[in-house]
Amino acid sequence: MGASATDFHKDDARLVARAQAGEQAAFRQLFETYGPLVYRVAARMVGEEDAADLTQDIFVRAYQRLSSLHDGQAFHAWITRLAVNMAHDHLRRRKPQTF
């Protein structure tokens, strides 16, 4: 039998807890797992040319704010929401000013 979504969320919770405790390898594993998803979100929203840099920025912000995540099982939703919000911010900054 394959692993269920609940199993993946439990794995996320364990990785988040380890990363919150300072274990860089755990955060690296979260990056390797969710990096492709975050990149796809970024690429769809801001385009391929900015997606790689934005993905890195998203994970830097995630690392900085990881302590604010109280439910490690929600990492998937949390990182996706962070990606969407940062992509919106990127688009707002990139938008030319009109007067």
Q: Provide the structure class.
A: mainly alpha
Q: What level of helicity do the residues show?
A: over 70%
Which value, in Å, is the CA radius of gyration? 15 Å
| Mean pLDDT across every amino acid position | 91
The largest β sheet comes out as: none
Low-confidence stretches: none
User: What would the principal axes of the Cα set say about the shape?
Assistant: elongated
Q: Would you list the SSEs in sequence order as H and E?
A: HHHH
Q: How many β strands by DSSP?
A: 0
| Residues in β-strands, percent | under 5%
Number of separate helices = 4
> What gap, in angstroms, lies between the N and C termini?
60 Å
Describe the fold and architecture.
- The protein has 99 residues and is mainly alpha-helical.
- The protein is 78% helix and 0% strand.
- Helix 2 packs antiparallel against helix 3, helix 2 crosses helix 4 and helix 3 packs across helix 4.
- The radius of gyration is 15 Å and the shape is elongated.
- The model has no long low-confidence stretch (mean pLDDT 91).
